[in-house]
Amino acid sequence: MVDEAWEVDSLEIEAQVQRLQTIADPIARATATELIASVLQLHGAALQRILEILEERREPAITAALDADPLVRSILLLHDLHPQSTAERISGVLRELEGRLKKRDASVELLSLEDRVVKVRVVNRGGSSGVEALVEEAIRDAAPEISNVEIESISPIRSGFVSLDALREGAMATAARVQD
Length: 180
Fold this sequence. Notes:
180 residues, alpha+beta, 64% helix
């Protein structure tokens, strides 16, 4: 229920910001925009202080619980207050994906993170569809500030090659069964 309310509130905020941009009076529009920026700065400073108090009191369980809550996490990210760096969050989500990817006979490796661009290598030995999309979605969820996810996709082609020796062995085994 909280998640649904948050999504509705987010949409309403977006609609109000769009309406704000349509205000004809440039002074009124600028004043309203500055007011919003000031309120966001105040909230950001308060949130930063809350995190500092938690850190001073060594409350990692509470910090982890805040990070686990999608609404709180999004607000911390909005104010650039997330306790983990972008690189830590991306590395963490890729570690979390390992089990799911292993079931699909796939793997992922972080190649680089520069200028809000993440580069990863996805090896999809099983040929499962949707592996790249799964990786990209996980990265974007963990680090919405990322502007681009570049995926180097490797899908080794399984050859239909059968060696001559294997054919001979198969033929001899078949012939032996026929003679029996």
